[in-house]
Write a structure and sequence with these properties.
single chain; 398 residues; alpha/beta; 11 helices; elongated
Length: 398
């Protein structure tokens, strides 16, 4: 039986957005980040569209995502960067997947897997230049150029030295060096410049011991759009690939020339007329003030509709915006539409590009106090994906 909602993904928009990012990147290549099921847009179709739009690399967080791309026949370079002990690197090495390495133990596990397979593993070393997350520590980016102490430089130095030894053995080939910004969505923040300087020093240290990476990269979506001097050899956009602004205080999607790719649509279930004074949904946090029409929408927090959207987020019904009435439930929510004529089966647009007057993912993010990244990635696999704007078969494969 058909599910009473769908997420429509415009693959032409993804191609367009990659083209915008490629133009911004200048001589640098584009790695389209397709982790987390391509930010909810669908891993394999989105990856193919990104490649068709001009991306030359794909980036994922988890090895399973990388292996899914290979199983789909995608042969473009893929980097996977988030691993825990016991990840099992051998299949990824055999599939020519680049492995992000953030600590010496990880490098040792990759080396052991490479010896097991008899192949040279492709690795990219990640340095923490100030985000304080994963990556080998070098020194903090504080807005002024610090003098790295012997202790502070130890982790990165140890990782680089170990990588060079494994290269000499033939177990690994260091194909890249990377880091990640902490404040790229605020391009004037002092850490943005400080992290660029720190990364330059990390690259210089690696090159002094003899590493010759193919690519060096640090720019996420926000940096790719606002800080062109940080492009290095490769930019690594994620959110912007899907047409959403990574820096809403700097510019909207339209300001950056991006086209949002996702539209979330449901179909009205029960539509009924009620009297004034009727409480709506759990806890009766909304009460009707006059006779009105209530529309039941069969999507809820189990599908990704934030419970915090209760009473604050808007949807488009019959060409008009109306706020969610009362609490979002596990599988449904209610909209109070007044006297608007609505019948069961009518479309309810939760968010989309905004061209028809519907709310955008950014509107929803602002309503519920989160970021647009979370809005699109919340919409889970129970909701079918419908793809539009596809190229003919074979033209998006690589």
């Amino acid at each position: 039986m058909p599910f009473p909602a769908r997420v429509v993904v415009d693959l032409a928009a993804i191609r367009h957005n990659v083209g915008v990012l490629k133009e911004r990147a200048g001589a640098a290549e584009v790695m389209a980040v397709v982790k987390a099921d391509a930010y909810g847009h669908g891993l394999v179709p989105s990856a193919r569209a990104a490649l068709a739009g001009g991306a030359s690399w794909l980036g994922v967080a988890q090895l399973a995502e990388a292996m899914t791309l290979r199983a789909a026949g995608i042969t473009a370079p893929v980097l996977s960067w988030l691993h825990a002990p016991g990840a099992g690197f051998a299949p990824a090495i055999e599939a020519d997947i680049d492995l992000g390495v953030s600590a010496p133990w990880m490098l040792d596990e990759v080396g052991a897997a490479a010896r097991q397979t008899g192949r040279t593993a492709r690795v990219q070393l990640k340095v923490d230049t100030g985000l304080g997350r994963n990556g080998a520590y070098m020194f903090p980016a504080t807005g002024t150029q610090p003098a790295p102490s012997t202790t502070a430089a130890t982790d990165w130095s140890a990782l680089v030295d170990r990588a060079r030894a494994l290269e000499a053995e033939g177990a690994v080939r260091v194909t890249g060096l990377l880091t990640h910004f902490a404040y790229a969505d605020a391009p004037q923040h002092p850490t943005v410049r400080a992290q660029q300087e720190a990364f330059g020093q990390a690259v210089a240290l690696a090159e002094r011991v003899g590493l010759r990476p193919e690519v060096r990269h640090m720019s996420n979506s926000a940096a790719a759009l606002t800080t062109p001097e940080a492009a290095w050899d490769l930019v690594r956009p994620g959110l912007a690939v899907y047409g959403l602004t990574p820096a809403p205080e700097v510019g909207s999607s339209a300001d950056f020339g991006l086209a949002p790719a996702m539209t979330a649509i449901a179909h009205a279930s029960v539509v009924k007329r009620v009297s004034g004074g009727q409480g709506v949904s759990y806890g009766h946090t909304h009460t009707t003030t006059a006779p009105t029409t209530l529309v039941d929408v069969p999507l809820g927090y189990a599908d990704g509709v934030p419970r915090h959207a209760s009473g604050v987020a808007e949807v488009l019904v019959g060409g008009e915006r109306h706020r969610i009435a009362g609490r979002v439930c596990m599988d449904q929510f209610v909209v109070d539409v007044g006297d608007l004529p609505v019948t069961a089966g009518d479309e309810v647009v939760l968010f989309g590009p905004g061209g028809r007057g519907e709310p955008t993912a950014q509107d929803w993010a602002e309503a519920v106090g989160t970021i647009n990244y979370e809005i699109v990635t919340r919409f889970g696999p129970r909701i079918p994906r419908e793809y539009v704007g596809a190229l003919p078969d074979g033209q998006e494969d690589r």
